[in-house]
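Lay summary. Proteins are chains of building blocks that fold into shapes, and those shapes determine what they do. In this project we predict the shape from the chain. Here is one chain we studied, written as its sequence of building blocks.
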Amino acid sequence: AFPTDRCEAMTALGLYVRFLLGQDPEELSIMDRHADLLLKALPEWAPKDRICDMFYWYFGTYAMYQMDGKPWKAWNKAMKKALGNSQRTDGDPRGSWDPVGPWGSTGGRVYSTALMALCLEVYSSERVEPRRD
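And here is the predicted shape, written in a compact code that computers can read:
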């Protein structure tokens, strides 16, 4: 129900987990290749195209934050635009995000808003240091 070429959710999750395991992109080139895949599917608020995969955006945000440098800068720019242009500013849903994308109808407004708020928390998180054995 959504374009699979615009979503790398499991790649993003896998890349983030690699950081949590203490792996280092300077030692494992696969991590750079994962980041390259994410850069080909940057966040974009386009509900009619069904590409607002907030699950993907959440793990992509944390993975790319850990990548830092150019990958993070490109992801962050796209994510800020997607978040900023889509947060509701009217009526009762003010401050929330509409439940769109492949999982929005299942999770609803609470799901969408929670994931988008968690993406904003990346700025207060710490970068994971690679394990040096």
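What the prediction tells us: The CA atoms of residues 81 and 123 lie 16 Å apart.
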